[in-house]
Amino acid sequence: MRDEILAYKRERILEEAVKLFYARGFNGTTLDDIAAELGVTKPFIYTHFRSKVDLLAALCKPTIEMSLAAVLQGSAMPGTVTERLYHAIAGFTKVVLQRQANIAIYFREEKNLSKTALADINELRKQFDHTLSDLLREGVEAKEFDVPDERLAALAIGGMISWAYTWHRPAGRLTLDDMGKEMGHLALRMVGARAIPS
Amino acid sequence: MRDEILAYKRERILEEAVKLFYARGFNGTTLDDIAAELGVTKPFIYTHFRSKVDLLAALCKPTIEMSLAAVLQGSAMPGTVTERLYHAIAGFTKVVLQRQANIAIYFREEKNLSKTALADINELRKQFDHTLSDLLREGVEAKEFDVPDERLAALAIGGMISWAYTWHRPAGRLTLDDMGKEMGHLALRMVGARAIPS
DNA sequence: TGGGCATGCTACCCGGCGGTAGGCTTTCAA
DNA sequence: TTGAAAGCCTACCGCCGGGTAGCATGCCCA
């Protein structure tokens, strides 16, 4: 009970911080701003986070973990490589769009992270890239894909999806699922795979 | 002569600012840092730029203009739509990689730009998106491309290229031209166009 | 009813940095 | 040789904002 309340308060701070960092930037947002939005005061935040930079890391890292988890889960599914790549991409797309603000903040404010937080996240990203590259290589070996350069293709696909944080509007015409499927199909085309019937 | 010297000094300031903003972030770099790197002092910078924010705009805007120019030039070339898209993408890719630091700074520090500078740049980006979308629509009408959703495909292609600022290493194995060609081919695949022999 | 602990607030500190005022040096024209 | 203007520097201001010390409030348990 005690712990749940604590965790809830922590979550509320994070929520509000995400909103403000997303709208005004990390350096354009003061801790007083966040506190005011929550109807509390600055020292309250310091009972949950050691510093402003700590707060930043706390809102970036889990999102990167979710991204990695999505592609890992997709790539570990049963089915052909084509199907697995499709699901990995669709899943990753959904994470990016669901956590659009967190993703945006991470990419914009990377330079403000502490050395250690940055190192942790870089490790996750490395695993992410390898998972994608490996999937592509596997597809090439299975003769399902046709790409001259797996590393480059993996980066291109990753970029195509990640970039969505810059233009996606939650109130847009497509649902999250639709977006995931569309991106999945575009990715399959890029690697020269046969289309999956949707 | 007078003007050339003035322009040269301005360029030097911009160069150094790009280097430092890229490495440490806009807010992580002080004007004293830039001045020190140039072997001058802070007031010197103020004889060439009205403010730190002004400096930021001066190093972002021309790069966005170059990006737009590249796709406009490609799309206005003689040849089939497929060829024109290919050249537009290759050209854009080369701009992104050549001006990697400026592109990175722009995307990261957008929130620090003045309202007016931001409005100017947004106008350029709108033109950019339209140019790409129009090219895709034209290709569909000419039966050279096969995409269900031109807007989405344009955003996906734009993202795939733009994203390169996050991973490109100038000392990497591929030259600028190679990268442009690779990206051009990937883009053609995404829109279902017949490959261009390289 | 009262003691003590948890919780969050008031009030403050202080360092960093964008921006500026005014002076010194160098250059060039007459 | 001198006047003056251009160019750059020294020295400073003032605010903003991250972070903290110590107090008030209220709740729980005896």
Structure description:
Two copies of one chain form a homodimer. Chain A contains ten helices and no strands. Chain A is mainly α. Chain A has two domains: 1-49, Homeodomain-like (Arc Repressor Mutant, subunit A), CATH 1.10.10; 51-190, Tetracycline Repressor, domain 2, CATH 1.10.357. In chain A, α4 (52-75) runs antiparallel to α5 and α5 crosses α10. Chain A is elongated and about 60 Å long. The mean pLDDT of chain A is 96. The interface between A and B is medium-sized, with 33 and 34 residues. Chain A binds a DNA duplex (30 and 30 nucleotides) through α3.
Provide a brief overview of the structure.
With 198 residues, the first copy, chain A, is mainly α. The first copy, chain A, contains ten helices and no strands.
Average residue-wise pLDDT of chain A: 96
Predict the CATH topology of the largest domain in chain A: Tetracycline Repressor, domain 2
Order of helices and strands of chain A: HHHHHHHHHH
Strand content of chain A: under 5%
Q: Oligomer, anyone?
A: homodimer
Shape-level CATH architecture of the largest domain in chain A: Orthogonal Bundle
Domain module count of chain A:
2
Distinct helical segment count of chain A: 10
Please identify the structural class of chain A as seen in this structure: mainly alpha
Cα Rg of chain A: 19 Å
User: Could you state the CATH homologous superfamily of the largest domain in chain A?
Assistant: Tetracycline Repressor, domain 2
| Measured distance between first and last alpha carbons of chain A | 45 Å
Shape of chain A: elongated
Q: The biggest beta sheet of chain A, please?
A: none
Largest interface, counted by CB within 8 Å of the partner chain's CB: A-B, 33 and 34 residues
- Helix proportion of chain A: over 70%
